[in-house]
Specification:
The complex is a heterotrimer. Helices cover about 80% and strands about 0% of the residues of chain A. Chain A is mostly helical. Chain A starts with a helix and ends with a helix. Chain B folds into two domains: about 30 residues, no CATH class; about 240 residues, MetI-like fold. Chain B is built from 13 helices and two strands. A two-stranded antiparallel sheet of chain B has the order 1-2. Chain C is about 25% helix and about 30% strand. A six-stranded mixed beta sheet of chain C has the order 6-7-8-3-9-10, with helices on both faces. In chain C, strands 13-12-11-14-19-20 form a six-stranded antiparallel beta sheet, with no helix packed on it. Chain C is elongated. Classes of the chains: A mainly alpha, B mainly alpha, C alpha+beta. At the A-B interface, helix 1, helix 3, helix 4, helix 5 and helix 6 of A face helix 1, helix 3, helix 4, helix 5 and helix 7 of B.
C-alpha cells in the first residue's frame, strides 16, 4: 500500500516537473542567450554564456526600447484607469437593472466581448484615421479601452450581483444618491474586484498588438509588442540582441508577477461565477 | 417619461427622472465606447462587405453579394476557417485538458512546492503573445533551433522544411505554442474552482467509497462544471480571436497554410488593399462571434 | 389626524399583489409590531414606508406631510436591518454619523449626535472600532445607534433580532422596550416571532397574504382574535382546533356534536357571539393552557410526547378519533400546557377536560363566532 502511494506521488511530481521545465526552458534560454555574443550563439547556442557581456542589451536598447516601455506604460495606466472607472459604474447600473432596455444593454456588452478586433479592424482603422487619431496616444487609449470594457463589465457585474443589497438600502436611507452609493459604499468595498479587473486589463493592454500595430506606427510611439516585432525585423540574425530586447521587455513584468502572484491567482477565482 | 434608463416606476415625478439620469451618467461612458468602437465598426464591416474598394480609392463600387460569392469559392478562406476550428478544438483539448490535470494535482495531489509550480506554469500568461512568438521563432529555427537539437538527440529527423516551413506541420506548431502560453491560465482558473469545492463533499464521497480518480470523476468534475463551461467559452472565443501568434510566427504561411480568419482579413485589407473583400471575411468572423456571445449569455444565465 | 396615516397602500410585483389595499394609522409614541407568516407582505410594507420600495398606489402621511414619493432619506424615517447593514469600511462612529454627514451637518454636530446615541446604547467604548471587531449584540446596538443618531420621526425595524441567539434576543427585547420608553419614539417593527410581538407591542398588526387580518393590543388579539388565522398565529404551542357541528342552538347556549364523543359540548353564548344556526359546521378551538382536569366535558386521550420544561410541562396527546386540524402534522396531536411539574409516562391515559368558558368557535369562513369568557384577575 505504502509503495503504491509513493509511486503515485512521484508520478504526480514528475508531471508537474515535466510541464514546468517545458514552460521554463524557453524563458531561461531567452535570458541566457541575451548575454551571449553573436558568435557564441551559433557555435554553442545552449551552453552557458562564456562571459556576461551586455553588448546585446546596448544594441537592443539603441532601437528605442526605452521609448517602447514608456509608451506601453503610459497607455496601460491610462487605459486601465479608464476601463475600471467606466466599466465599474456601468456594471453597477446593469447589475441593479430591472428595465428591459438595460438588460438589452448588458446583452450587447456581453456579445461585444466575443467580437475579435480583427473582424472590425478595417472600418475601425478608417474611422480612427478619418478622425485624425492615428499616431495619437489618446486614440489608442480610447479604442483599446473600448475592447477592455466588455470583459470588465462582466467581471464587475458578477461581483455586484452578490453585493449585499442592504448596505445600499442603508446608504439610501442615509441620503446617498446612486453615484454616492457607488463611490462611497460600493467602491471602497470592492477592492478585490477592482484589483482583479485591473490585473486582467493591465495584462491585456500591455500585450495588445493589433490595435497598437495599426494605430501607433510612428517610430517613437510604438508599444512593446510592436517594438519587439520591429526589433526582430531589424536584427534578423542578431539573436542575442533580440533576446536581450525580449528580456528587457518581459523580465520586469515577470518579476512583478512573481511578487504579486497571489493576487493574480485570486483575481481568477471570480471568473467562474 | 418612459426613458430607457428608468427603472419602471409607475408614478412619475422627481424620482423617475433623477434615477434615470443617474443611471445614464453611470452607464453611458462604457456603453457609448462599446457602441462607437465595437458595434458601429461591426455595422460598417457588414455594409462595407457589399462594396469593392481599396485603402486609398476615392469611390466604392457596389457589388452586392459579390464578395461573398468570391468568398465561398476562395480555398484560402476555407483553410482559414478550418485553422480557426483546429485552434479552438485543439486548445480545448490541450489547454483545458492539461490545465485540468495540473490543477487537480496542485489541489489534492501534492502539497510541497505547489505555489512554486503554480507560479512557474502561469508565468507565460503575462508575456505578450508577440514576445512568446519571437522566442519560439528562434527555438523552432531550422538551423540552430533548440527543438531540432532535442529531436536529433533522441535520434529522429526534424522536418526538412523547418517546423514552421512545412505546411502539414505548421498549424499544429502554432497550436502548441498557444498551449505553452495559455495552459497556465486554464490551470489557475480551474484550480480556483477546485479549491471552492468543500472538503466535506470529498469526505462524504470517501464514506460512500469514492476516492482518487473516481472521486475526481463523480465529485470534482460536476462540482466545477460552471468553471469548465467558462473555460471552454474563453478558449473558444480566444480561438477565433487568434491573430498575434499566427501573424508573428508564420504571417499565415507557408503558402497560407496557417492563415486564420483574423490574419486573412488583415492580409486582404492592409497588404492586398481589398477592403471590401476583407470586410466579407470579417463578417463571417463577426457572425461566429455573435453566436458565441449568445451561447455565453445562455450559459451565464443558467449558472 | 394621526401621526402616521397609511391609506389604501397597494404594491404589485407584476401580476403578484404583495400588499392589498392596506390602511391603518399610528399614533405618536406607539410601538407597532407587524407579524405574519413569511410572504405575508409585512417586510414589503415596512420597506414601502422606508421608501425602499415604490408603492403602486396609496398614500403615506407622516406628521401631516405627504411622504408617498419622497426619497428615503427625506422621509424622516430610520431603519434597522436584519443583517445590521453596517458599512464594513467605516468605524462605528462613522457608521452612526454617515446619515447626518450626507445631510450636510457640521463635523461638530455629527460628533455630538453620535456620542449622545452611543451613550444611550452604552457603546461609547467601541466608537473607533470597525464593525468586524464587534459581537453580534454589539453590532445590533450600533445599527440601532445609527438610527437614533438621525433622530427620525419613525423608527423602522426589519426583524432586527433574528440573527441573535436566544438569550441575547431575550435581553435585546427588554432593552428595546426600555429604549422605546426612554426615547418616546414611534416605532414600527416587523417580526415573524410572536413572542417579540406579544412582549413589545403597543399594538400588533397581523398580516396575511397582503391583507390585514386584525389590529389590536397583544391581549386583545390573544383573547379576541377576529378569526381562526389570528387565533392560530398567536400562542405557543398553537391553539388546538377540531371539527364540530351545531346540534342545537338558542340565544343563550349552543350544543355541539363532536364526532367520536357521545356527549355534546354545551357552550354559553353572549352578545358578542356571531350568527350561527343549527346544522352549521364549526371549528372548535381551545388553547393548550385552558385544558384542565376538572371540566365536565372530556375527551379521552393517550400521552404521546412529554416536554418537561421545569416550571411547566407540555403534553402532546393523541385523542383519536378526535383529530386536531393541523395541516403540517401527519398524526395530529392535542397540545396541553400545565404550569407545574408533572410525572407521567408516554402511553398513559389522560382525560382532556374542555371547559366551556375557554372555547373558541369559528364558522366555515374562519370568522370567530364565539370568544372565550375571559377571567381577568381580580
Amino acid at each position: 500500500m505504502m509503495s503504491k502511494f509513493r509511486i503515485t506521488k512521484i508520478a504526480l511530481y514528475g508531471i508537474m516537473i515535466l510541464w514546468s521545465t517545458f514552460v521554463l526552458m524557453p524563458l531561461v534560454w531567452m535570458v541566457l542567450a541575451s548575454f551571449k555574443t553573436r558568435r557564441e550563439m551559433f557555435t554553442a547556442p545552449y551552453d552557458l554564456p562564456s562571459a556576461l557581456t551586455l553588448d546585446s542589451f546596448e544594441r537592443a536598447w539603441g532601437v528605442g526600447l526605452g521609448w517602447f516601455i514608456a509608451n506601453s506604460a503610459l497607455i496601460t495606466v491610462s487605459s486601465v484607469g479608464l476601463i475600471i472607472l467606466v466599466s465599474g459604474t456601468a456594471a453597477y447600473v446593469l447589475a441593479r437593472a430591472k428595465s428591459v432596455w438595460l438588460r438589452m444593454a448588458y446583452i450587447a456588452i456581453v456579445v461585444g466581448f466575443a467580437v475579435p478586433v480583427a473582424a472590425v479592424i478595417v472600418p475601425l482603422y478608417q474611422m480612427v484615421s478619418a478622425a485624425g487619431f492615428v499616431n495619437s496616444y489618446v486614440g489608442l487609449i480610447i479604442v483599446t479601452s473600448a475592447y477592455g470594457i466588455p470583459f470588465t463589465v462582466i467581471l464587475f457585474f458578477a461581483f455586484f450581483l452578490d453585493f449585499p443589497k442592504e448596505l445600499e438600502e442603508a446608504a439610501r436611507l442615509d441620503g446617498c444618491s446612486k453615484q454616492q452609493i457607488f463611490f462611497r459604499i460600493i467602491i471602497p468595498l470592492s477592492g478585490p474586484a477592482v484589483a482583479s479587473a485591473a490585473i486582467f486589463q493591465a495584462v491585456f493592454v500591455w500585450n495588445e498588438f493589433l490595435l497598437a500595430l495599426l494605430l501607433l506606427n510612428s517610430p517613437g510611439r510604438k508599444t512593446i509588442p510592436v517594438g519587439i516585432l520591429q526589433l526582430q525585423g531589424e536584427f534578423t540574425s542578431d539573436w542575442p540582441a533580440i533576446m536581450a530586447g525580449l528580456s528587457l521587455a518581459t523580465v520586469p513584468l515577470l518579476l512583478v508577477f512573481i511578487v504579486l502572484q497571489k493576487y493574480f491567482v485570486r483575481s481568477l477565482a471570480g471568473l467562474g461565477k | 417619461m418612459n426613458s430607457p434608463f428608468g427603472t419602471q416606476k409607475q408614478a412619475g415625478g422627481r424620482r423617475t427622472m433623477s434615477s434615470g439620469a443617474s443611471n445614464a451618467i453611470l452607464l453611458l461612458p462604457a456603453l457609448s465606447l462599446c457602441m462607437i468602437f465595437i458595434f458601429v465598426p461591426a455595422m460598417l464591416a457588414i455594409s462595407g462587405s457589399l462594396y469593392s474598394y481599396g485603402l486609398t480609392s476615392p469611390t466604392r463600387d457596389f457589388v452586392g453579394l459579390g464578395n461573398y460569392i468570391k468568398l465561398v469559392q476562395d480555398s484560402i478562406f476555407w483553410v482559414s476557417l478550418k485553422n480557426n476550428l483546429i485552434i479552438v478544438f485543439g486548445s480545448i483539448v490541450l489547454q483545458i485538458g492539461i490545465g485540468c490535470v495540473l490543477a487537480a494535482i496542485l489541489d489534492r495531489g501534492i502539497t510541497f512546492g505547489s505555489t512554486f509550480f503554480r507560479t512557474i506554469i502561469f508565468m507565460p500568461v503575462i508575456v505578450s503573445a508577440v514576445a512568446v512568438a519571437v522566442v519560439w521563432l528562434i527555438i523552432l529555427d531550422p538551423n540552430i533551433g533548440m527543438l531540432n537539437k532535442i529531436v536529433q538527440s533522441v535520434g529522429l529527423t526534424p522536418p526538412s522544411l523547418g517546423w514552421l516551413g512545412d505546411p502539414k506541420i505548421s498549424i499544429w506548431i502554432v497550436l502548441g505554442v498557444a498551449a505553452w502560453q495559455q495552459t497556465g491560465f486554464m490551470m489557475v482558473l480551474i484550480l480556483a474552482g477546485l479549491q471552492g469545492v468543500p472538503q466535506e463533499r470529498y469526505e462524504a464521497a470517501a464514506l460512500d467509497g469514492a476516492r482518487g480518480l473516481r472521486a475526481f470523476w463523480y465529485i470534482t468534475l460536476p462540482s466545477i462544471r460552471n468553471i469548465l463551461i467558462v473555460a471552454v467559452l474563453i478558449t473558444t472565443i480566444g480561438g477565433f480571436k487568434v491573430f498575434d501568434f499566427v501573424f508573428v510566427l508564420t504571417k499565415g504561411g507557408p503558402a497560407n497554410a496557417t492563415q486564420v480568419l483574423g490574419t486573412y482579413t488583415y492580409l486582404q485589407a492592409f497588404t492586398l488593399g481589398n477592403l471590401g473583400y476583407a470586410n466579407a471575411i470579417a463578417v463571417v468572423l463577426l457572425l461566429i462571434a455573435v453566436l458565441i456571445g449568445w451561447l455565453q449569455l445562455k450559459v451565464s444565465r443558467q449558472a | 389626524m394621526s401621526f402616521l396615516e397609511i391609506t389604501n397602500i397597494v404594491k404589485d410585483y407584476g401580476a403578484f399583489r404583495a400588499i392589498n389595499d392596506v390602511s391603518f394609522s399610528v399614533e405618536e409614541g406607539e410601538f407597532i409590531v407587524m407579524v405574519g407568516p413569511s410572504g405575508c407582505g409585512k417586510s414589503t410594507l415596512l420597506r414601502s414606508l422606508a421608501g425602499l420600495e415604490d408603492i403602486t398606489s396609496g398614500s403615506l402621511i407622516l406628521g401631516g406631510r405627504d411622504i408617498t414619493r419622497d426619497e428615503p432619506a427625506d422621509r424622516g424615517v430610520a431603519m434597522v436591518f436584519q443583517n445590521y447593514a453596517l458599512y464594513p469600511h467605516m468605524t462605528v462612529a462613522q457608521n452612526m454619523g454617515f446619515g447626518l454627514k450626507m445631510a450636510g451637518q457640521s463635523k461638530a454636530d455629527v460628533k455630538v449626535a453620535v456620542e449622545r446615541a452611543a451613550k444611550t446604547l452604552r457603546i461609547t467604548d467601541h466608537l473607533h472600532k470597525r464593525p468586524k471587531m464587534l459581537s453580534g449584540g454589539q453590532r445590533q446596538r450600533v445599527a440601532i445607534g445609527r438610527a437614533i443618531t438621525r433622530s427620525p420621526d419613525v423608527f423602522l425595524f426589519d426583524e432586527p433580532l433574528s440573527n441573535l441567539d436566544a438569550s441575547l434576543r431575550a435581553q435585546m427585547r427588554v432593552e428595546l422596550g426600555h429604549l422605546h420608553a426612554e426615547l418616546g419614539a414611534t416605532m414600527i417593527y416587523v417580526t415573524h416571532d410572536q413572542v417579540e410581538a406579544m412582549t413589545m407591542a403597543s399594538r400588533i398588526i397581523v398580516l396575511n397574504g397582503g391583507d390585514i387580518e386584525q389590529i389590536g393590543t397583544p391581549l386583545e388579539l390573544y383573547n379576541k382574535p377576529a378569526n381562526r388565522f389570528v387565533a392560530e398565529f398567536l400562542g405557543s404551542p398553537r391553539i388546538n382546533l377540531f371539527d364540530g357541528k351545531i346540534a342545537a342552538i338558542n340565544a343563550q347556549t349552543a350544543s355541539i356534536k363532536i364526532d367520536g364523543i357521545a356527549d355534546h359540548l354545551e357552550i354559553s353564548l353572549s352578545s358578542d357571539s356571531g350568527p350561527m344556526a343549527s346544522g352549521d359546521k364549526v371549528t372548535v378551538g381551545i388553547r393548550p393552557e385552558s385544558i384542565n382536569d376538572t371540566a365536565p366535558w372530556k375527551i379521552p386521550a393517550k400521552i404521546s410526547v412529554i416536554e418537561s420544561l421545569g416550571r411547566e410541562t407540555l403534553f402532546y396527546v393523541n385523542a383519536d378519533p378526535v383529530k386536531t386540524l393541523d395541516p403540517d402534522a401527519k398524526d395530529p396531536l392535542f397540545a396541553v400546557h400545565k404550569s407545574n411539574q408533572i410525572t407521567a409516562q408516554i402511553g398513559d391515559d389522560i382525560s382532556l377536560g374542555i371547559p366551556q368558558e375557554g372555547v373558541f368557535l369559528f364558522n366555515e369562513a374562519g370568522e370567530t363566532v364565539r370568544y372565550p369568557i375571559t377571567q381577568t384577575a381580580p
